Batch of 4 targets.
Target 1
Amino acid sequence: MRPGDAARAAAGGYAAALAFWAMRHRAALADFLFQNALPPESRRGLLLLLFLASAAGTIAWLTAGWLAQRRGDAAGRAPTLLARGLAALTVLPFAPVLAIPEIETQHPFLGLGLSAAMAGLAFWIVRDIGQVVADAAQAGGRPQRLSPRAGLIAAGCFALIYAVLLATVTVLRHNSFMTHAFDLGIHDQALYNILHSGYMRTTLYGPYAIDYLGDHFSPILFLLAPVYALFQDARTLLVLQSVFLAAGAVPVYLLAHEKTRNVLLGLALALSYLLYPALHGVNLRDFHQIALICAPLLAAFYLLERGRTVPFLIALGLALMVKEEAALTVAAVGAYIFLGKRRYRLGAGVMAAGLAYFAFAVGWAMPHLGGRPQIDTRFGGYIAAGAGGAAGVAWTLLTNPLFTALWILGNPQKLIFLLQIFLPVCFLPVLAPAVTWIPALPALAILLLTSAHTQYDITYHYAAHLIPSVFYLAALGMGRVTARPAGRAATQSLKMALAAGLLVAPLAVNYLYGPLINKNGIRLTMPDRHDAVVAGFVAQIPAEASVSALSDIVTHLTARRTAYLFPDVADAEYLLLDGDPRANFWPHEGLKARDRALRDMIPHLRSGEFGLIRMEDGVLLLKRGADPSRNEEALRGLLAARYEAEDLPGDLRETIVADPQASGGRARIATAASPHPEGRTALVYGPYTDLLPGRYRVEYALKTDRAGLDARVATIDVFTHRDGGLPRAAREISGREFAAAGRYEVFTLEFETDRPLEDVEFRVQYAGQGMLGLDYVQVTPVELWQ
């Protein structure tokens, strides 16, 4: 029996008790950790619990050792395995800490540091256990090996599972109207018009059609057109993107196996790729052609390692066709081949081809097609004064290295981004030879030198360009780790530990920042009743008709020659509008997005140029030249709004809860124990909307447990600061006005205004009596005045 095992057993007991205590005291955990706030009696209880649990772990280990001696186990493997198994419990306390609300935003470096510690502990624990198991297997003469072919099949199966899962998730998001004109709609229309117009015609940029190649030079879309022809719909692109991203797991497996000659490590890196949070961000962010670079570039790296020149050039050529900036990565691959592989003719040729292609695409083809690279927009804060474009970026990069370092390292979000990129692969790229980083430099430079915060955010698609290089470098780093001479048992346990780290690390980062799987569960969106209504309107529009619609609706209408992003209307035959507050009114953004969009919609209802042909649930379908006699009714329907309580701001903390009685499955519920910051009592306020002159009815869906009592439970009002600080309409609600306890009932206010009202709020004040719940606030124009 080894003394070190006693420490492991005690640490396991200590950690299990600490995790148990943390789970029981989740509400106070943040104050305990960050402010050391804990009453003395609670601290004494915690100390006793930790002591007893540590003692229990040690006693269990001693008992196992005594039993082993009684049974004649001279090697003492049973107590050793028990101690190291108990040591695995040391990862438990991390879970409640990572579950602290907003730790990922308020303390991001702590959260990522704990994630790294979890991966390190997993590595250490599995190495320790693996050492014992490998020793036993070696002593028994039972070496276990997986066939490389079986590993390849397994990697393919994992990729297939990923493709099916992510295709399902993204199609459900699309069916729930959560995909956008920029960029799914653009690519859908571009693919449709390749088949029907002969070029990438798109009308989503404005009232005039453009050739999409002028905006982004992506000839690979022509290769997708035959597949798209089988099912001409935006969902085809979502499925294709999921398949392309999933396919990258196969060359990742082959790369890792090539460098380590170990099937387990190959599968571990392939799974790490499929669990990679940044990959999920690419997959969920609509469709973008840059996502198509992962599989061919990873295949090119593998074929380069195998020395298969012709297939390598084919794969690299496919990567080159994805987007204009891919040419810089191709040129960097050529430089790496020249300097690192010392294959001078091949390296020089690839580098020259990449640079020539970039010059052709950016310098001639895109301007010739009416577009231009977005360099000044994306790198505005970095470009040297008096310069512009790529030259301005190069001037700063070459002449002011200190500014460049501060530009990157002085931005905490960029440092967090780097941790989110390299932590899921256990920082293995750091162990790769310096020269092998050359292919990663263009993508890193684009992501880190940019002024646009979305480009160093793993929930967006921009990291797709970097992902292949990260996993290539990880495979190279893994090869260097496993190439170190050691005993057979030690080498096997090291590989098992490395595999464990490669699985724990991406899961931990996903838990904090994952766009698909995180502490809030899996992001699986199902279409609701309103989505079904909108889908019915979409189906009513003729397939060949020109149409203008909101961003998240138009993606269902872009498989046609002409579709505009509202407020662009141009020559559209149909307008499909939605006044629901939850709709996406982009390009209008911010608090007033809906109000500005409504101001764009109203003239089309009042001009007589379009007439209403259908209206339901705030959704309007207008046709050019149709009878406009119902347009005033349509205007009232458009301006009606239903605000779900959980979407409105409130003063009381922790009031948004799941509620099966509520229309959206969630509501705001206050109790007497709800904290009142600075004495404020608003259960909800906002939404600071603007109203036209007219008469309005406002309905508040409320419930309480004080039905039948005289005490006031709430005050509802309509308020705007433009009225001099007094509510335009108000009403106190007592328990006697409820027919039953715990059931939503509607309370109404009516008011009118002879002038436009700005920043209107529909407030509910909690009186501090019992439970008060709010499901929604419904605002309906009864009569509009000119």
Note: DSSP finds 29 helices and 20 strands in the chain.
Target 2
Amino acid sequence: MTDTLSEAVPLPEVAGLTEEEAERRLIARGPVEEQQTSRSLASIVRANVFTVFNVILVAFGVLTFAFGHFEDALFIAILVANSGIGIYQEWRAKTALDRLAALVAPHATVVRSGEARSVTVDQVVEGDLVQVRMGDQVIADGVVHASEGLMLDESILTGESHAIPRVAGEEVRSGSFVAEGAGAYVVTAVGKDSYAHRLTETAREFRHPRSPLEHQLNRLLIASVAVVIPLGAMLSWALLERQTELNEAVTTAVAAVVTLIPEGLILLVSMTYAIAAMRMARRGALAQQLNAIESIASADVICLDKTGTLTQAALRVVDVIPFDGVERSVAEHAFARYAASSPSRNATLEAVGEHLTLTPEQVTAHVPFSSARRWSGITLGDSTFVFGAPEHFALGALAGRVEAEQRQGRRVLAIGTTESALPRQVGPDQGPPAQLRPVGLAVLAERLRPDARETVQFFLEQGVQLKVISGDAPETVAAIARDAGIPVGTPLDGRNLPEDPEELRRVALEATVVGRISPEGKRRLVEALKAAGKYVAMVGDGVNDVPALKAARLGIAQGSGTQMAKSVADIVLVTGEFGAVPAMVAEGRKVLRNLQRVAKLFVTKSAFAAFLILTIGLTAQSYPLLPRHLTLAATLTIGMPGLFLALAPSAGSWNVQGFLREIARFAIPAGTAAGLGVVASYQFARNVLDVDLIESRTVAVTVLIVLGLYFIFVLEATGRVRGRWIGALCIAIFALYWLFVAMSATRGFFELATPTVAIVMCAIGGSAIAILGLALVDERFIPGRAFARGDQEPEPAPAEGSGASQPVP
């Protein structure tokens, strides 16, 4: 692949449309369809309403209305309320994200009435002359008018991984990005007639698959369906064989099967993601995918681009050093001419131009800078300049000075002249023209961001590996990394990455600093880390970071970065502060820990329902619980505290990879013990004490609620202070239940009996059987043991590729 170079083509004398003509065309065209910056409201409604479990629940609700009592269809009202809350919360998060997304929305530089100006995408009209440079997004279809080494990344549209040269007269399409060079194109199609209205969705087609937690939840739902179908069939067959009265059969089937379904779990997860994303938006971080909040918590390796992440984006010129035999003023004048006249701007040239000002000159030939070649060139009149990395020049006595400056973390660039003409065809790895006469060196310094050291220390304490990969010299990168507190070891030269996949994997795992690495090298390094089982996040802001952002499991772009980087990233740091990432990690890990604990409550309910079906549902005994009882118990012990607990501060262990196994280890014994306690107390009250059915069911409901609150206390009381708050919450919920029992209206609605000594004693006995049984089986069900272990659960070893498993205060 070669770069096609055209001579610099001046803009037309009548540069672009006039303001009046652009306004007329804008009115004639009408508004452009608004681009989606987050999930649409229709998508949110579908995700919260049309689920497999909701369909099952609605079907049972219809049966209950038709053959049972409307009170036993109360779970439908809860379903509607939960869906409504979920829709509202996600809509609130959507509006917050949309407002934040407006700050990073793509803009275009159009030339109107002879002046360049920045406009939003919806203000671009057919006939506009749009200027683009490296990193810009092509926001409309058009025809190239001027090309100065213009190379487009069209991978979003065509799947082609290499940049494609575009010269005057060739077509460009929205959805592509400027990988190198600069140019201008005349817009031929906007809105529905182009690719622009699909840009947001198309730009992310290649992003990573679902997050680890989403995979585990999908497996949990499949397992739930696999249990519901056979148990539901067994119960239906038993009811049919006993020729149970239709009303009673429907009530029993609804009570049994509905309890098997963890219907609120997925809703809780989506709501938690949405609220977490909204919290991040307030901190200036735009989550372009909701699961990114969780993914960042799973990352165990973060690859960083040095410039703009550890260091501030702006550079400053520290010194200009002339070569032997060259006056300092001559060297400064060469740098000033180049910085003032170069058509392709970047941070380096902006810094030089700010330090050494001069009037721009006419450029007759230009080779734009390429991170792969590490040089650029321009021809000004009779002079041809080459500007780039110092290794392209014969440094002579200045070699030691260059090395010393780079060891201090400074960037050194050289400029020289040549009698040779700039090549019209420039290969991606081609060196500069021969017979270079070096003129001078420019020493530029970067400053660490104020929060860089603190942020690095946070990640190191959390067991997250940091790897700095940059196109600068390895010594320069190492100096900055060392200053930020990152263990460096031996810096690696990215030009020497091994070709063998196994060797590359070993090098990727060992190296913490890689310099002189190309964009393709960054991608290979990230992919090697992924192949080694690491969950990799990539932080970058430039076009050279885009391949690595695409390859990583999580892409994070700086808000001050290029449009291309922001478009492909999962998270955009709108404020550009890398120091915002630790808060996101803490938020994500809190979500993981809390959802893992709350999920145990949902699955415990399912295990309890399975136990009841197998012990009583298949017998001729009356079912111990009505659907309304189960709705009441689930609301008080799961629904009400669930969202609060999922968003509450937390500390302790987490391990996404062992998610289902950890849930099963808790839920199966807990659900079985709860079933044992409910069945024992119900049978004793019904068959030994000979109390009536309503009183026996009151015993069963009371035991179920007591045990549900006990499970909350066991799971959530992970410290003495937190234990007091959780204990108070459980007491308040039980008091609310007792209020329902005490009030005649609610007592009658739920078919509960006034508490008697027999009811209370049976409830205490049934609860004690379950709690003592669990305590004998597993010490995790003894809250006091959790306090004795240091106020939190022990840390499991992190599963490979699942992310670091660390506590976050």
Note: The longest helix spans residues 581-617.
Target 3
Amino acid sequence: MKRKARRALSRLPYALLGLVFALTGCRDSGRSSITEKPELFKTYPYGDPDPVPIFVRPGDADEHARLYPYFAFNGFSKTAVEKAWTVVRLENPYLSVGVLPQVGGKVWGAFDVSDGRPFLYTNRVMKFREVGLRGPWTSGGIELNFGIMGHTPSTASPVDYVLLPNEDGGVSCVVGNLDLPSRTFWSVEVNLPRDAAFFRTRSRWFNPTPFRQSYYCWMTAALPAADDLEFLAPGRFWIEHDYGRPLDTWPVDAQGRDLSKYRHNAFSPSKSYFTLGELADASGAYSRASDRGFGHWARYDDMPGRKIWIWDLSRAGAIWENLLTDADGQYVEPQYGRLLNQSDHDFLTPGRTDRWSELWFPYGRLGGPMVKASPWAVLTAERTADHLKMGVYALRAIDDDLTVTSGASEIFRTRVAIKPSAVFRTSVAMPDGRSAYGVRLGANKLVYASDPAGDDLSRPFAFRPDDESTTEGLFLAADRCHKERRYNEALEKYIACAARDPRHVRALTRAAEIYVRRGQEERAIALARKALESAMYDPDANSVFAVASRRLGRLVDAKEALGWAARSLEQRSNAYTLMAEIALLEGDAGLAIEYAGRAIGADGDNLNARDVLATSLRLLNDPGRASDVLKRILRTDPLHHLARFERYLIDPTPASLRDFQSMIRGEFPGEIYQELAHYYIRLGLADEAVALLSLSPESPTVSARLAYLTRVSSPAVSASHLEKALALSPRLVFPFREEDIPVFAWAIRERPSDWKPKYYLALILWSKGRLDEASELL
């Protein structure tokens, strides 16, 4: 009976769904709630994972190599089945928000409880099609994209998640994942306050590695398409994905078309409009026929990137409606990014945590589109010949003055007292001859100035390829490749740049960093030495020299160089963390605590430093203080698996073990165990690494690492692990960490007649650009 009820619920019209939410949710209770349960969806599944490494697929090998060790999927069904998917629902009296942790952690959809209608496009079928970087993708909601350009590798896969009640009465679902190529961790908290008509996403991205990692993040929302839809995208210019097309004017282009109107885009092909040139925090869309809108708010410095995606309005675009949904119609995508264009990438520097917050909300019944929004309210304002018609849609409870000014004069004041999702509308007589005006709610809850040029930017916007005829242009071209994970191209260009200018410290340092990534530490040290000969105190060159030296066991050199790197604000926290790790490796937990404290003082978000602090306290038999540090870590990052494993080491009970293992729910749980094990291996804590890997799902890479870790202490145990590694199937096994190069090199020496360790080592070398060495093994 329950199965039939869920099936019926999934097929209800939106208005009736809203009625169900209103009757069964939190509307009368005045609080937030969060639930997790399986719900049946009509599903067009995907499958057929490709056992061939992704970098040898047909097409651009370097493009595919950026995704290794992920594999692609080749099978997409034309026939639907009913399948249960885990749905997390967050509800308060005003909104109902769904999250799909098994589908990339995306926000499935969001409903305005007052009328039961979605303000995000809510696709009621899972119709996976070959759109994403690995193939499968499905439309709707808000997609979370971290890593490199394209739909993120985990967009259709399970991610880790945890449900949290908040002290303020709100609720949160935190979703997150390990990005395998970069070995960075991202998470997004979907937060619904108890007393607001918006939900919030709080994003967090942490780079625990000693390398610069590719930085790209866009939040891709979806809205129902409508002929009268208006895009409220601030900006004076727009540009497409690539840099071949110059800036055009926005919203009216050079041909006189108002591109902000959906119906004016009835010309080929599908559209990508990146709008820029205006300092604004709010954007969205509005339909006059329904008098309903969608809004997004974030500080401009947090999310300066704004994009509108529109499928071709001809049949060429309409076919995607059939491909991606059954009955929910066409959609458009307002997208929000950390950079201005999706062809742009930056670096997430070593040890750095990046975080930002965004608000998502509906509004309506105001008689016009929003002109301004804030975390408190949405404002509409329309000027006629002698009146100003205004409307306020409350996102939080408001009890404050609304004032209108013209010049230095206040011409209107009234008290506005409304609850969230309620509306206040008024009309104000405007003095003759005065055109510009200002509106203010409270002291600073919302401030609007009507001057259309008031937020215009005068800075240059230069989107173009780099001129490699100059040395600096060649370096910038290499830098761009580096940021896009095109490491082979980047290395070639850095080396060419250093050939033109042998004292080009940045090119030498970046090339050295790539060599460390490739597991070629001696080459890295040779280049870092050249950089230090020109700039002895350069923090980046010292940092790379230190990382390579540590990998080779030259700890004295590593410590000395890290001391110089720590003089730099950018490198300081990471350098002190690495010094703390070396101190622990050398058995000095007290010194490790000192350096970890310095690292935390330089950057309180550096979870590597807090990890080392907690481990050091545990090793000094101070479980109380260690537990306090772990609590702090989990408040910051509720999906920090290492903190839960450290709690298990302090209190090795079945309950603490379940608490650790139950939170690892993503597509590749074994990779989480291996990534955590490498933390202990770096610290010389082999027992902890072995204990951790012994809990991991079986894989050849796990067993090979266990064999390597126990090769001296327990040769018989090591031999058993190695036999298991070689007996397990290599299907979909794609080792990629440079730290595993010595593991498989040792395995080859131990089993020279077996092809599997050679194959695994060749995969790592191939993925690192060491093609000749890989070819020799194969």
Note: Confidence is low (pLDDT under 50) at residues 1-28.
Target 4
Amino acid sequence: MGFGVTIASARAKRSLLRASASALTLAACLVLAAGAVAQNAGDQDSIVEETVTGNLPSDLTEQLLIEADELIYDFEQEVVIAAGNVQIYYDGTTIEANEVRYNQSTNQVFAFGQVKVVQPDGTVIYAEQVELTDDLRDGFIESLVVLGQDETRFIAASAERRDGDVTVFQDGAYTACPACEDNPDKPPTWQVRAKRIIYNQREQTVQYEDAVFELFGVPVAYVPVFFHADPNAGRRSGLLRPTLIYSDELGFGASVPYYFNLAPNYDLTVTATGLSEQGFLGEAEFRHRLANGAYTVRAAGIRQLDPEAFATRRIGDNEPGNREFRGSLEAAGLFRINEFWTWGFEGHLMTDRTFQRTYELTNEDELQSNIFLTGLSTRNYFDARTVYYQPLSKDELDEQQGIIHPVIDHSYIFGNPVFGGTVQLDTNFLSLTRTAVDFDTINPERGAGFCNDPQRVNTDECILRGFEGTTTRLTSEATWRRTIVGPAGQLITPQVVARGDLFSYDIEDPFAGIGGNNVADFNEFLETGSETGGRGMISAGFDWRWPFMSANSYGTQVIEPVVQFIARPDATDNDDLPNSDAQSLVFDDTNLLAWDKFSGYDQLEGGTRANVALRYGFTSPSGFNVQALVGQSFHLAGDNPFEEGTGLETDSSDYVASLIVQPNSSFATSTRARFNQGDFELERLEIDATRRTERTSARLAYVFRNEQPELGYGDDRSEIAASGSVTIGDNWQVFGRASYDIEEGEPIRAGVGLTWADECFKLTVAYDNRFVPDGDFDEGDQRFTINLSLRTLGETGFQVDADSFSSE
């Protein structure tokens, strides 16, 4: 029987030892402590820190704290034992166990009974027995659970640690779902079971052999070999989640992205997509972050096996997808020069207009290539940019889009008052070129290309949207305003505005040289040729408001009449100059009190005008809020520059009104309307209602617009759209949306979906029917989409063209 020395009540002493990073040193510390007690067994209190640490080598730096009910040394077996509620703290690692033994002859460390190891990164290991080598790097563990700091879990019958950074789990499982508190034996929402799980901390990978994916405890998929990144690791190279797709034109396809972590500040993602009907689609995205900004470069390309799948009954450029090679190259960047200035760029090169939408590379209807410089300070704003618009519809041509080279906006507010008021200077410079004329038809039944035919275009059915040629304009506008508070609380704001324009244009006649009596005279739309000139406008007026407030127990009310008067001469050259930025005019409550109601600088409002409005607001202590406005505009003198159908073409404008009601934080409605000033007929109506609660959300929108032939809308337009979602129980959500063209009696879009989600899993199944053409296709399309998201493993999806299942 071996001789042993026992140190009783060692927990009460809490000896602080200094040791190296090996179990051998741990044993040496225990031996020294035991030796100290053997020399002075009559006084256990002599076990002090100075006695122990004084016998340790002087080059040891780490601190080791051991707590246990007993410390035992068996001299014959050469075993050091810490027994009873053992706690060991070393270099950020905590070990708890019923008993810890060190065998000097075999250089092995054993921990028994309810073993718990907490590592510096927060990872927690639970086991019944742990066996380690003397350097604590390698070993064997039985019946373990590894709980990551983000609640990821590895569970295994046994595990072996090799080379200090590779752990092999036998008959193990991995999940990122938290255990059920009420029923710990309940299977997690999902887990991956495998014969072997190899966790490589150095390479930050987790590999599975003979893996089975389980959902709610039911096996649903088998994979011979499967691996993913370490859930606790940051960015690293490796495969990302694949995506599946199917359609008649593209066939069945799978996209597999691979991520290259090249450096801390730049990376690369390469995606390979195999399509059974069209071949191989390759994509690459490079991202680079610099000290003062970042940029991204994306490329995609495919050599189509069956280009004629995108052929239509049309001819010429209206079949952009009918080509062998299709691709795109894009780049974007944003950089900060200093605290005031930033610059950036965005560029898109494509073989054809519909490539990106057909292959689901974007959801945009239009792309912009631009380069810009922006400056912003307290009283100063500057923005300069060049812009090239690229439509992604087969019915719009790149040549019809204006190339802006450049547009510059500058605004400056002077710091010192002038006559007690504020002076602001606004400047706009625009230079634009278009290489093809762009007409729009008033009658939708004519088709998109009707007005581009010189034999049929006429001023009764067509609107000139864009001219062929170049125009340059410089506008500078100085504004002085001052707000004066009257004796009875009136707010009077006199204002003076001085504006000047310099312009130069060279407009080509798109029908020049075409003979025949039916050829349109382009000069009926806009005078062709070259012209240089200028124009100016000085206007003066005031804004008068008199708010009345009432506050009591049920809420606060504000009633505010507003009168605005503007005097100015007639505008000149509105009909003779190209109009690029002021074609859209929506007269409503938002611009009733605007000094100039045109949306851009190319058109200039003239004549004397008065705008009148009445505002009302109410807010209750409970949060009930109402905001309302009603008003009208009056043309008092001079020429009226507004076209028929705008609501401003008569001396007394249409009535505009708005009403916003928000009873509480979860429900709100807004209504905007315009009524004809003659017979009070409804000209325009917009209604929007939203409702949000903890479990439901809903939105209903209705839009009615009367015909506006002069603006290119020959028919009334009336649409309704609805969307919403309902959460059922703790995990289910049903959602849907639909839009309908009331005037045409046709649906626009409809979709419905179902989602199941919890803390670690999300599955969405959706159906979407787009009734309007998109991409290369003349008809609408129907799609089923399945998206699966697994916490720590990523997302994957599958999209199917539902038209593939319909019978012809």
Note: Residues 23-39 form the longest helix (17 residues).
